[in-house]
Design goal:
Layout (H helix, E strand, L loop, with lengths): L1 H15 L5 H9 L8 H22 L1 H6 L3 H5 L11 H22 L2 H7 L11 H14 L9 H13 L15 H22 L4
Length: 205
């Protein structure tokens, strides 16, 4: 997943600041680094992009989807699911993972680091690597409990596609769980933004 984020940041970074995640957009709006007026359009684009990507995956692997009767395998590319279903624990996992993601991103955007971490077009795009490594580390250390969405669009858009696509024997899209990878990351982002601003007030930013 980390390298997938790297690809997205490299492509989108020079044009949108690499807003691939509603939690990032939300946090930057909370800290005053992104206009609230642009948030709905960005979030809509993020969800549509996630839907489009999962649709392409379905087309690419349609023969494989048709060949298996395993509903879990059919669902796996579309939505996250917990290893152990315990909604309060699952919610906390998504909150903490996203909190770490957003807090590091907020520090990485500081002027002292921007020259090093910005993502220009071309070979200089290696500046996207810190975010890719960050997502990878979160997945290794915090992601085992829920499959770590840490991105509401990444879960909601593909889950909606799972519901809509004509997948034979696909089973449930598990909407009763779907609030966890939406609310958890958004609350984690809000807490990260608040902590970042608090630390700024005491001179730690």
């Amino acid at each position: 997943m980390g390298l997938g984020v790297f690809v997205g940041v490299v492509v989108a970074g020079p044009y949108s600041g690499a807003h691939l995640n509603p939690a990032v957009t939300f946090a930057l709006a909370l800290t005053g680094d992104f206009p609230w007026a642009d948030v709905p359009a960005y979030v809509l684009a993020q969800v549509i992009g996630a839907m489009f990507g999962s649709g392409i995956v379905w087309l690419l692997y349609k023969d494989h989807f048709d060949a298996t009767d395993d509903q879990g395998l059919k669902f796996a590319p579309f939505g996250t699911a917990p290893a152990i279903r315990n909604l309060p624990s699952n919610f906390f996992s998504e909150l903490i993972g996203t909190n770490v993601l957003i807090l590091v991103i907020l520090y990485a955007q500081e002027p002292a680091l921007q020259d090093e971490l910005q993502t220009p077009i071309g070979l200089g795009a290696l500046g996207a690597l810190p975010v890719a490594f960050l997502v990878w580390v979160i997945g290794l250390s915090l992601g085992g409990t829920t499959g770590y969405a840490i991105n509401p669009a990444r879960d909601f858009g593909p889950r909606l596609m799972h519901q809509l696509l004509p997948l034979r024997g696909k089973g449930s899209s598990d909407w009763s769980y779907s609030w966890v990878p939406i609310v958890g990351p958004l609350l984690g982002a809000a807490l990260a933004a608040g902590l970042y601003q608090l630390l700024a007030q005491v001179g730690m930013v």
